[in-house]
User: Fold this.
Amino acid sequence: MSKIKSICCIGAGYVGGPTMSVIAAKCPDIKVTIVDLNVARIAAWNDENLENLPVYEPGLDKIVAEARGRNLFFSTEVEKAIDEAEMIFISVNTPTKTYGLGKGKAADLKYIELCARQIAAVSKSDKIVVEKSTLPVRTAEAIRSILDNTGNGVKFQILSNPEFLAEGTAVEDLLAPDRVLIGGDTDAAGQEAIQALVDVYANWIPKDRILTTNVWSSELSKLTANAFLAQRVSSINALSELCEKTGADVNEVARAIGMDSRIGPKFLKSSVGFGGSCFQKDILNLVYIAKSYGLNEVADYWEQVIIMNDHQKRRFASNIVKTLYNTVSGKKIAFLGWAFKKDTNDTRESAAIYVADDLLFEQANIAVYDPKVEEHQVYGDLNYLGSRNKEENANLVTVFNDPYEAVKDSHAIAVLTEWDEFKNYDWQRIYDNMKKPAFVFDGRGIMDGGKLQEIGFVFQAIGK
Ligand code: NAD
Ligand code: UGA
Assistant:
Protein backbone atom coordinates (compact mmCIF):
# COMPACT_ATOMS: atom_id res chain seq x y z
CA MET A 1 0.00 0.00 0.00
CA SER A 2 1.29 3.47 -0.83
CA LYS A 3 1.74 5.99 1.93
CA ILE A 4 -1.36 7.58 3.40
CA LYS A 5 -1.93 11.12 2.10
CA SER A 6 -5.26 12.06 3.62
CA ILE A 7 -6.73 11.44 7.05
CA CYS A 8 -10.13 12.33 8.45
CA CYS A 9 -10.94 12.21 12.15
CA ILE A 10 -14.54 12.15 13.32
CA GLY A 11 -14.77 13.87 16.71
CA ALA A 12 -12.91 17.08 17.60
CA GLY A 13 -12.83 16.54 21.36
CA TYR A 14 -10.09 16.13 23.95
CA VAL A 15 -8.63 13.21 22.00
CA GLY A 16 -9.42 13.94 18.35
CA GLY A 17 -8.25 17.57 18.52
CA PRO A 18 -4.81 17.15 20.11
CA THR A 19 -4.05 13.76 18.52
CA MET A 20 -4.72 14.88 14.99
CA SER A 21 -3.01 18.24 15.52
CA VAL A 22 0.17 16.40 16.44
CA ILE A 23 -0.13 14.01 13.47
CA ALA A 24 -0.57 17.03 11.18
CA ALA A 25 2.37 18.86 12.72
CA LYS A 26 4.63 15.82 12.41
CA CYS A 27 3.44 14.71 8.95
CA PRO A 28 3.28 17.82 6.75
CA ASP A 29 2.62 15.62 3.69
CA ILE A 30 -0.62 14.25 5.09
CA LYS A 31 -3.80 16.32 4.90
CA VAL A 32 -5.60 15.95 8.21
CA THR A 33 -9.24 17.05 8.52
CA ILE A 34 -11.01 16.90 11.87
CA VAL A 35 -14.77 16.98 11.70
CA ASP A 36 -17.47 17.33 14.32
CA LEU A 37 -21.20 17.86 14.42
CA ASN A 38 -20.72 20.46 17.13
CA VAL A 39 -20.58 23.73 15.19
CA ALA A 40 -19.43 25.82 18.16
CA ARG A 41 -16.57 23.42 18.89
CA ILE A 42 -15.32 23.56 15.31
CA ALA A 43 -15.61 27.36 15.29
CA ALA A 44 -13.49 27.44 18.46
CA TRP A 45 -10.84 25.20 16.87
CA ASN A 46 -10.76 27.65 13.95
CA ASP A 47 -10.62 30.73 16.18
CA GLU A 48 -7.83 33.15 15.24
CA ASN A 49 -7.20 33.71 18.94
CA LEU A 50 -5.48 30.52 20.11
CA GLU A 51 -6.58 31.18 23.67
CA ASN A 52 -10.08 30.26 22.55
CA LEU A 53 -9.28 26.70 21.45
CA PRO A 54 -11.93 24.45 23.01
CA VAL A 55 -9.37 22.22 24.70
CA TYR A 56 -6.77 23.68 27.02
CA GLU A 57 -3.51 21.71 26.95
CA PRO A 58 -0.04 23.13 27.56
CA GLY A 59 1.74 23.48 24.18
CA LEU A 60 -1.32 22.72 22.06
CA ASP A 61 -1.68 26.28 20.80
CA LYS A 62 1.80 26.15 19.24
CA ILE A 63 1.11 22.83 17.51
CA VAL A 64 -2.21 24.08 16.12
CA ALA A 65 -0.63 27.35 14.99
CA GLU A 66 2.06 25.43 13.11
CA ALA A 67 -0.24 23.12 11.15
CA ARG A 68 -3.66 24.79 10.94
CA GLY A 69 -4.41 26.01 7.42
CA ARG A 70 -1.34 24.15 6.08
CA ASN A 71 -2.34 20.50 6.37
CA LEU A 72 -4.66 20.64 9.39
CA PHE A 73 -8.30 21.57 8.94
CA PHE A 74 -11.31 21.71 11.25
CA SER A 75 -14.68 21.37 9.61
CA THR A 76 -18.34 20.46 10.08
CA GLU A 77 -18.51 18.87 6.61
CA VAL A 78 -18.38 15.32 7.86
CA GLU A 79 -19.39 13.54 4.65
CA LYS A 80 -16.98 15.47 2.44
CA ALA A 81 -14.07 14.72 4.78
CA ILE A 82 -14.95 11.00 4.93
CA ASP A 83 -15.22 10.82 1.17
CA GLU A 84 -11.82 12.42 0.62
CA ALA A 85 -9.86 10.44 3.23
CA GLU A 86 -7.92 7.20 2.83
CA MET A 87 -7.82 6.67 6.57
CA ILE A 88 -10.66 7.59 8.96
CA PHE A 89 -10.21 7.81 12.71
CA ILE A 90 -13.29 7.48 14.87
CA SER A 91 -12.70 9.57 17.98
CA VAL A 92 -16.20 10.23 19.20
CA ASN A 93 -17.38 9.96 22.80
CA THR A 94 -18.30 6.57 24.27
CA PRO A 95 -20.02 7.46 27.54
CA THR A 96 -21.60 5.06 30.01
CA LYS A 97 -25.12 4.10 28.95
CA THR A 98 -27.82 6.00 30.81
CA TYR A 99 -30.74 3.88 29.62
CA GLY A 100 -31.83 0.36 28.74
CA LEU A 101 -29.79 -2.82 29.02
CA GLY A 102 -26.43 -2.22 30.69
CA LYS A 103 -27.58 1.18 32.03
CA GLY A 104 -24.94 2.67 34.32
CA LYS A 105 -22.22 0.23 33.20
CA ALA A 106 -22.01 -0.62 29.49
CA ALA A 107 -20.51 1.79 26.98
CA ASP A 108 -23.05 3.65 24.87
CA LEU A 109 -22.00 2.88 21.33
CA LYS A 110 -24.66 4.88 19.52
CA TYR A 111 -22.18 7.53 18.33
CA ILE A 112 -19.78 4.85 17.10
CA GLU A 113 -22.52 3.09 15.18
CA LEU A 114 -23.63 6.38 13.62
CA CYS A 115 -20.07 6.99 12.43
CA ALA A 116 -19.83 3.50 10.94
CA ARG A 117 -23.14 3.97 9.10
CA GLN A 118 -22.06 7.34 7.79
CA ILE A 119 -18.72 5.99 6.59
CA ALA A 120 -20.53 3.10 4.91
CA ALA A 121 -23.00 5.42 3.20
CA VAL A 122 -20.48 7.96 1.95
CA SER A 123 -17.41 5.94 0.97
CA LYS A 124 -16.73 5.43 -2.72
CA SER A 125 -13.17 4.13 -2.37
CA ASP A 126 -11.40 1.63 -0.08
CA LYS A 127 -10.69 2.96 3.40
CA ILE A 128 -8.90 2.10 6.59
CA VAL A 129 -11.14 2.78 9.57
CA VAL A 130 -9.31 3.31 12.84
CA GLU A 131 -10.96 2.99 16.25
CA LYS A 132 -9.39 5.78 18.31
CA SER A 133 -12.22 5.93 20.84
CA THR A 134 -12.02 3.58 23.81
CA LEU A 135 -14.28 0.65 23.02
CA PRO A 136 -15.44 -2.64 24.51
CA VAL A 137 -13.48 -5.61 23.28
CA ARG A 138 -15.00 -6.98 20.03
CA THR A 139 -16.52 -3.67 18.90
CA ALA A 140 -14.57 -3.95 15.65
CA GLU A 141 -16.78 -6.90 14.81
CA ALA A 142 -19.90 -4.71 14.97
CA ILE A 143 -18.25 -1.95 12.95
CA ARG A 144 -17.20 -4.48 10.32
CA SER A 145 -20.70 -5.88 10.10
CA ILE A 146 -22.17 -2.41 9.48
CA LEU A 147 -19.50 -1.45 6.96
CA ASP A 148 -19.70 -4.70 5.02
CA ASN A 149 -23.48 -4.88 4.89
CA THR A 150 -24.46 -1.33 4.12
CA GLY A 151 -21.48 -0.14 2.10
CA ASN A 152 -21.17 0.46 -1.61
CA GLY A 153 -19.00 -2.58 -2.20
CA VAL A 154 -15.80 -0.78 -1.19
CA LYS A 155 -13.29 -2.61 1.00
CA PHE A 156 -12.72 -1.57 4.60
CA GLN A 157 -9.94 -2.51 6.97
CA ILE A 158 -10.59 -1.93 10.65
CA LEU A 159 -7.77 -1.12 13.05
CA SER A 160 -7.81 -0.50 16.76
CA ASN A 161 -5.47 2.30 17.83
CA PRO A 162 -6.44 3.31 21.36
CA GLU A 163 -5.16 6.55 22.78
CA PHE A 164 -3.16 6.62 26.02
CA LEU A 165 -2.64 10.36 26.42
CA ALA A 166 -3.49 11.91 29.76
CA GLU A 167 -5.10 15.31 29.92
CA GLY A 168 -2.85 18.13 31.01
CA THR A 169 0.12 16.39 29.41
CA ALA A 170 -1.55 15.49 26.11
CA VAL A 171 0.99 17.18 23.86
CA GLU A 172 3.98 15.72 25.70
CA ASP A 173 2.35 12.28 25.67
CA LEU A 174 1.61 12.49 21.95
CA LEU A 175 5.06 13.71 21.01
CA ALA A 176 6.85 11.03 23.04
CA PRO A 177 4.44 8.25 23.96
CA ASP A 178 5.55 5.23 26.00
CA ARG A 179 4.05 3.19 23.19
CA VAL A 180 1.60 3.37 20.32
CA LEU A 181 -0.68 0.35 20.06
CA ILE A 182 -2.14 -0.80 16.75
CA GLY A 183 -4.37 -3.86 16.44
CA GLY A 184 -5.47 -5.30 13.13
CA ASP A 185 -6.48 -8.44 11.32
CA THR A 186 -3.84 -11.13 11.08
CA ASP A 187 -4.35 -11.76 7.33
CA ALA A 188 -2.29 -10.03 4.63
CA ALA A 189 -4.76 -7.19 4.06
CA GLY A 190 -4.95 -6.56 7.81
CA GLN A 191 -1.16 -6.48 8.09
CA GLU A 192 -0.94 -4.06 5.18
CA ALA A 193 -3.40 -1.71 6.91
CA ILE A 194 -1.41 -1.95 10.15
CA GLN A 195 1.73 -1.04 8.22
CA ALA A 196 0.04 2.03 6.72
CA LEU A 197 -0.70 3.34 10.20
CA VAL A 198 2.72 2.34 11.53
CA ASP A 199 4.21 4.46 8.72
CA VAL A 200 2.22 7.50 9.84
CA TYR A 201 3.47 7.24 13.44
CA ALA A 202 7.00 6.35 12.37
CA ASN A 203 7.36 9.95 11.19
CA TRP A 204 8.25 10.85 14.78
CA ILE A 205 7.99 7.78 17.00
CA PRO A 206 10.80 5.20 17.23
CA LYS A 207 9.69 1.91 15.67
CA ASP A 208 10.37 -0.08 18.82
CA ARG A 209 7.64 1.94 20.57
CA ILE A 210 5.03 1.01 18.00
CA LEU A 211 3.40 -2.19 19.14
CA THR A 212 1.19 -4.27 16.85
CA THR A 213 -1.28 -6.92 18.01
CA ASN A 214 -4.53 -8.50 16.94
CA VAL A 215 -7.63 -6.30 17.16
CA TRP A 216 -9.07 -7.87 20.29
CA SER A 217 -5.85 -7.56 22.29
CA SER A 218 -5.60 -3.92 21.33
CA GLU A 219 -9.20 -3.13 22.30
CA LEU A 220 -8.89 -4.95 25.62
CA SER A 221 -5.47 -3.47 26.43
CA LYS A 222 -6.92 0.02 26.54
CA LEU A 223 -9.56 -0.89 29.11
CA THR A 224 -6.96 -2.87 31.03
CA ALA A 225 -4.45 0.00 31.13
CA ASN A 226 -7.02 2.39 32.57
CA ALA A 227 -8.22 -0.22 35.05
CA PHE A 228 -4.65 -0.82 36.30
CA LEU A 229 -3.95 2.91 36.63
CA ALA A 230 -7.19 3.59 38.49
CA GLN A 231 -6.58 0.55 40.67
CA ARG A 232 -3.28 2.03 41.84
CA VAL A 233 -5.02 5.24 42.87
CA SER A 234 -7.74 3.33 44.73
CA SER A 235 -5.09 1.13 46.36
CA ILE A 236 -3.14 4.07 47.75
CA ASN A 237 -6.38 5.84 48.70
CA ALA A 238 -7.51 2.77 50.62
CA LEU A 239 -4.25 2.93 52.53
CA SER A 240 -4.62 6.67 53.12
CA GLU A 241 -7.54 6.00 55.44
CA LEU A 242 -5.51 3.49 57.38
CA CYS A 243 -2.64 6.00 57.58
CA GLU A 244 -4.95 8.56 59.14
CA LYS A 245 -5.89 6.07 61.87
CA THR A 246 -2.39 4.81 62.60
CA GLY A 247 -0.08 7.79 62.38
CA ALA A 248 1.59 6.56 59.20
CA ASP A 249 2.00 9.19 56.47
CA VAL A 250 0.66 8.10 53.10
CA ASN A 251 3.29 10.08 51.18
CA GLU A 252 6.05 8.30 53.09
CA VAL A 253 4.41 4.94 52.51
CA ALA A 254 4.02 5.70 48.78
CA ARG A 255 7.66 6.68 48.55
CA ALA A 256 8.80 3.60 50.42
CA ILE A 257 6.88 1.18 48.24
CA GLY A 258 7.47 3.12 45.02
CA MET A 259 11.22 2.67 45.31
CA ASP A 260 10.68 -1.04 44.81
CA SER A 261 11.34 -1.24 41.09
CA ARG A 262 8.65 -3.90 40.76
CA ILE A 263 6.05 -1.43 42.07
CA GLY A 264 7.44 1.82 40.67
CA PRO A 265 6.81 5.39 41.89
CA LYS A 266 4.09 6.62 39.54
CA PHE A 267 0.36 6.82 40.20
CA LEU A 268 0.76 6.48 43.94
CA LYS A 269 -0.44 9.96 44.84
CA SER A 270 -3.23 9.70 47.34
CA SER A 271 -6.08 12.10 46.59
CA VAL A 272 -9.68 13.01 47.14
CA GLY A 273 -10.40 10.47 44.40
CA PHE A 274 -9.74 10.06 40.72
CA GLY A 275 -11.92 11.88 38.25
CA GLY A 276 -11.89 12.40 34.51
CA SER A 277 -14.12 11.11 31.80
CA CYS A 278 -12.51 7.72 31.44
CA PHE A 279 -11.35 5.77 34.50
CA GLN A 280 -14.81 5.19 35.93
CA LYS A 281 -16.50 4.70 32.57
CA ASP A 282 -13.88 2.24 31.35
CA ILE A 283 -13.86 0.17 34.53
CA LEU A 284 -17.67 0.04 34.57
CA ASN A 285 -17.46 -1.14 31.01
CA LEU A 286 -14.91 -3.81 31.95
CA VAL A 287 -17.19 -4.92 34.78
CA TYR A 288 -20.11 -5.14 32.37
CA ILE A 289 -18.15 -7.15 29.83
CA ALA A 290 -16.92 -9.58 32.49
CA LYS A 291 -20.48 -10.03 33.78
CA SER A 292 -21.80 -10.57 30.29
CA TYR A 293 -19.46 -13.58 30.03
CA GLY A 294 -20.63 -14.79 33.46
CA LEU A 295 -17.29 -13.87 35.10
CA ASN A 296 -18.77 -12.53 38.32
CA GLU A 297 -15.59 -12.69 40.43
CA VAL A 298 -13.66 -10.80 37.76
CA ALA A 299 -16.42 -8.17 37.64
CA ASP A 300 -16.55 -7.80 41.43
CA TYR A 301 -12.79 -7.47 41.65
CA TRP A 302 -12.68 -4.47 39.31
CA GLU A 303 -15.87 -2.90 40.63
CA GLN A 304 -14.16 -2.52 43.99
CA VAL A 305 -11.86 0.11 42.43
CA ILE A 306 -14.91 2.31 41.81
CA ILE A 307 -16.46 1.57 45.20
CA MET A 308 -13.24 2.66 46.89
CA ASN A 309 -13.09 5.84 44.82
CA ASP A 310 -16.65 6.80 45.70
CA HIS A 311 -15.87 6.17 49.35
CA GLN A 312 -12.82 8.43 49.19
CA LYS A 313 -14.81 11.36 47.78
CA ARG A 314 -17.58 10.91 50.34
CA ARG A 315 -15.28 10.61 53.31
CA PHE A 316 -13.41 13.79 52.31
CA ALA A 317 -16.70 15.71 52.40
CA SER A 318 -17.94 14.11 55.59
CA ASN A 319 -14.62 14.85 57.29
CA ILE A 320 -15.07 18.55 56.49
CA VAL A 321 -18.51 18.49 58.09
CA LYS A 322 -17.28 16.58 61.14
CA THR A 323 -14.30 18.87 61.64
CA LEU A 324 -16.41 22.02 61.33
CA TYR A 325 -18.27 21.01 64.51
CA ASN A 326 -20.74 18.77 62.67
CA THR A 327 -22.43 21.57 60.81
CA VAL A 328 -21.63 23.50 57.67
CA SER A 329 -25.12 24.92 57.28
CA GLY A 330 -24.81 28.52 56.10
CA LYS A 331 -21.01 28.37 56.28
CA LYS A 332 -18.89 29.48 53.35
CA ILE A 333 -16.54 26.75 52.16
CA ALA A 334 -14.07 27.81 49.48
CA PHE A 335 -13.01 25.33 46.79
CA LEU A 336 -9.61 25.84 45.24
CA GLY A 337 -9.89 23.89 42.00
CA TRP A 338 -12.78 22.37 40.13
CA ALA A 339 -11.00 20.59 37.22
CA PHE A 340 -10.40 16.85 37.68
CA LYS A 341 -6.63 17.45 37.60
CA LYS A 342 -4.28 20.36 36.99
CA ASP A 343 -3.45 21.83 33.59
CA THR A 344 -6.81 21.02 32.05
CA ASN A 345 -10.17 22.79 31.82
CA ASP A 346 -11.92 19.42 31.83
CA THR A 347 -14.25 18.83 34.76
CA ARG A 348 -15.86 15.55 33.77
CA GLU A 349 -16.34 13.32 36.84
CA SER A 350 -14.18 15.70 38.86
CA ALA A 351 -14.11 14.81 42.56
CA ALA A 352 -14.94 18.48 43.28
CA ILE A 353 -18.45 18.00 41.88
CA TYR A 354 -19.25 15.18 44.30
CA VAL A 355 -17.66 16.86 47.31
CA ALA A 356 -19.70 19.97 46.52
CA ASP A 357 -22.84 17.90 46.19
CA ASP A 358 -22.36 16.32 49.62
CA LEU A 359 -21.67 19.69 51.25
CA LEU A 360 -24.67 21.25 49.55
CA PHE A 361 -26.84 18.54 51.08
CA GLU A 362 -25.55 19.92 54.39
CA GLN A 363 -26.63 23.42 53.30
CA ALA A 364 -23.12 24.84 52.92
CA ASN A 365 -22.43 27.86 50.73
CA ILE A 366 -19.71 27.03 48.26
CA ALA A 367 -17.29 29.48 46.65
CA VAL A 368 -15.34 28.10 43.71
CA TYR A 369 -12.15 29.31 42.11
CA ASP A 370 -10.39 27.42 39.33
CA PRO A 371 -7.80 29.03 37.04
CA LYS A 372 -9.22 27.41 33.89
CA VAL A 373 -12.80 26.42 34.55
CA GLU A 374 -15.51 28.91 33.68
CA GLU A 375 -18.56 29.72 35.76
CA HIS A 376 -21.10 28.17 33.39
CA GLN A 377 -19.20 24.88 33.56
CA VAL A 378 -19.39 24.70 37.36
CA TYR A 379 -23.14 25.30 37.30
CA GLY A 380 -23.52 22.98 34.34
CA ASP A 381 -21.82 20.15 36.26
CA LEU A 382 -24.04 20.61 39.32
CA ASN A 383 -27.22 21.02 37.30
CA TYR A 384 -26.36 17.88 35.31
CA LEU A 385 -25.94 15.93 38.54
CA GLY A 386 -29.54 16.83 39.27
CA SER A 387 -29.49 16.74 43.09
CA ARG A 388 -31.17 20.15 43.21
CA ASN A 389 -32.59 22.61 40.74
CA LYS A 390 -30.79 25.40 38.91
CA GLU A 391 -32.02 28.14 41.22
CA GLU A 392 -30.84 26.29 44.32
CA ASN A 393 -27.41 25.72 42.79
CA ALA A 394 -27.22 29.38 41.77
CA ASN A 395 -28.14 30.45 45.31
CA LEU A 396 -25.74 28.17 47.14
CA VAL A 397 -22.71 28.24 44.83
CA THR A 398 -20.71 31.27 43.70
CA VAL A 399 -17.88 31.16 41.19
CA PHE A 400 -15.05 33.67 41.49
CA ASN A 401 -12.38 34.89 39.07
CA ASP A 402 -10.14 35.92 41.94
CA PRO A 403 -8.96 33.32 44.47
CA TYR A 404 -8.62 35.89 47.25
CA GLU A 405 -12.27 36.89 46.81
CA ALA A 406 -13.30 33.24 46.79
CA VAL A 407 -11.69 32.50 50.15
CA LYS A 408 -12.63 35.79 51.86
CA ASP A 409 -14.82 35.27 54.93
CA SER A 410 -14.84 31.51 54.42
CA HIS A 411 -14.73 29.05 57.31
CA ALA A 412 -12.68 26.50 55.41
CA ILE A 413 -10.75 25.96 52.20
CA ALA A 414 -10.82 22.66 50.35
CA VAL A 415 -8.01 22.09 47.85
CA LEU A 416 -9.56 19.92 45.16
CA THR A 417 -7.24 20.28 42.19
CA GLU A 418 -3.43 20.27 42.37
CA TRP A 419 -2.89 23.55 40.46
CA ASP A 420 0.67 24.75 41.13
CA GLU A 421 -0.41 28.37 41.66
CA PHE A 422 -2.24 27.47 44.89
CA LYS A 423 1.07 26.85 46.61
CA ASN A 424 2.32 30.35 45.79
CA TYR A 425 -0.59 32.36 47.16
CA ASP A 426 -0.16 34.85 49.97
CA TRP A 427 -1.48 32.50 52.65
CA GLN A 428 -1.04 35.02 55.43
CA ARG A 429 -3.38 37.39 53.60
CA ILE A 430 -5.82 34.54 53.05
CA TYR A 431 -5.71 33.64 56.75
CA ASP A 432 -6.28 37.24 57.82
CA ASN A 433 -9.48 37.43 55.78
CA MET A 434 -11.04 34.14 56.91
CA LYS A 435 -13.33 33.25 59.79
CA LYS A 436 -11.48 31.72 62.73
CA PRO A 437 -10.53 29.04 63.33
CA ALA A 438 -9.52 28.88 59.66
CA PHE A 439 -9.35 25.39 58.17
CA VAL A 440 -7.54 24.01 55.12
CA PHE A 441 -8.47 20.54 53.86
CA ASP A 442 -5.91 19.44 51.32
CA GLY A 443 -7.42 16.80 49.04
CA ARG A 444 -4.35 16.68 46.82
CA GLY A 445 -1.42 16.57 49.19
CA ILE A 446 0.19 19.64 47.62
CA MET A 447 0.18 22.18 50.43
CA ASP A 448 2.98 22.81 52.91
CA GLY A 449 1.02 21.89 56.03
CA GLY A 450 3.78 23.02 58.40
CA LYS A 451 3.83 26.50 56.94
CA LEU A 452 0.06 26.81 57.06
CA GLN A 453 -0.04 25.67 60.68
CA GLU A 454 2.61 28.25 61.56
CA ILE A 455 0.35 30.96 60.12
CA GLY A 456 -2.48 29.65 62.29
CA PHE A 457 -4.53 27.44 60.01
CA VAL A 458 -5.98 24.16 61.19
CA PHE A 459 -4.62 21.89 58.49
CA GLN A 460 -5.67 18.43 57.38
CA ALA A 461 -4.45 16.43 54.41
CA ILE A 462 -5.57 13.11 52.98
CA GLY A 463 -3.56 10.25 54.45
CA LYS A 464 -1.95 12.14 57.32
P1 NAD B 1 -15.27 14.41 23.65
O1 NAD B 1 -16.66 14.32 24.13
O2 NAD B 1 -14.38 15.53 24.12
O3 NAD B 1 -15.28 14.50 22.05
C1 NAD B 1 -16.05 13.70 21.23
C2 NAD B 1 -16.57 14.55 20.06
O4 NAD B 1 -17.21 13.69 19.12
C3 NAD B 1 -17.62 15.59 20.47
O5 NAD B 1 -17.14 16.88 20.12
C4 NAD B 1 -18.86 15.20 19.67
O6 NAD B 1 -19.60 16.32 19.20
C5 NAD B 1 -18.26 14.43 18.51
N1 NAD B 1 -19.19 13.52 17.85
C6 NAD B 1 -19.99 12.56 18.40
N2 NAD B 1 -20.65 11.90 17.44
C7 NAD B 1 -20.30 12.44 16.25
C8 NAD B 1 -20.62 12.16 14.91
N3 NAD B 1 -21.48 11.18 14.59
N4 NAD B 1 -20.07 12.91 13.94
C9 NAD B 1 -19.21 13.89 14.25
N5 NAD B 1 -18.84 14.19 15.51
C10 NAD B 1 -19.37 13.48 16.51
O7 NAD B 1 -14.60 13.01 23.97
P2 NAD B 1 -13.03 12.69 24.18
O8 NAD B 1 -12.62 13.01 25.57
O9 NAD B 1 -12.26 13.27 23.05
O10 NAD B 1 -13.06 11.10 24.08
C11 NAD B 1 -13.25 10.44 22.85
C12 NAD B 1 -12.92 8.98 23.03
O11 NAD B 1 -11.53 8.84 23.37
C13 NAD B 1 -13.68 8.27 24.13
O12 NAD B 1 -13.93 6.95 23.71
C14 NAD B 1 -12.71 8.26 25.28
O13 NAD B 1 -12.93 7.16 26.14
C15 NAD B 1 -11.39 8.10 24.59
N6 NAD B 1 -10.23 8.63 25.32
C16 NAD B 1 -10.31 9.84 25.96
C17 NAD B 1 -9.18 10.36 26.59
C18 NAD B 1 -9.22 11.69 27.29
O14 NAD B 1 -8.23 12.03 27.92
N7 NAD B 1 -10.29 12.46 27.22
C19 NAD B 1 -7.97 9.68 26.52
C20 NAD B 1 -7.92 8.46 25.86
C21 NAD B 1 -9.06 7.96 25.25
C1 UGA C 1 -6.07 8.64 32.06
C2 UGA C 1 -4.85 7.78 31.71
O1 UGA C 1 -3.74 8.22 32.51
C3 UGA C 1 -4.51 7.90 30.24
O2 UGA C 1 -3.43 7.01 29.91
C4 UGA C 1 -5.73 7.53 29.42
O3 UGA C 1 -5.47 7.69 28.04
C5 UGA C 1 -6.89 8.41 29.81
O4 UGA C 1 -7.15 8.26 31.23
C6 UGA C 1 -8.17 8.07 29.13
O5 UGA C 1 -8.36 6.98 28.64
O6 UGA C 1 -9.01 8.97 29.15
P1 UGA C 1 -6.50 11.21 32.52
O7 UGA C 1 -7.80 10.73 33.07
O8 UGA C 1 -6.50 12.31 31.53
O9 UGA C 1 -5.72 10.00 31.83
O10 UGA C 1 -5.55 11.70 33.71
P2 UGA C 1 -4.71 10.91 34.83
O11 UGA C 1 -3.41 11.59 34.98
O12 UGA C 1 -4.67 9.46 34.58
O13 UGA C 1 -5.55 11.19 36.14
C7 UGA C 1 -6.82 10.63 36.34
C8 UGA C 1 -7.31 10.96 37.73
O14 UGA C 1 -6.57 10.25 38.71
C9 UGA C 1 -7.15 12.44 38.09
O15 UGA C 1 -8.28 12.87 38.81
C10 UGA C 1 -5.91 12.45 38.97
O16 UGA C 1 -5.90 13.52 39.85
C11 UGA C 1 -6.04 11.13 39.68
N1 UGA C 1 -4.75 10.62 40.16
C12 UGA C 1 -3.78 10.26 39.28
C13 UGA C 1 -4.54 10.47 41.52
O17 UGA C 1 -5.42 10.80 42.33
N2 UGA C 1 -3.35 9.99 41.96
C14 UGA C 1 -2.36 9.62 41.09
O18 UGA C 1 -1.30 9.17 41.57
C15 UGA C 1 -2.59 9.78 39.73
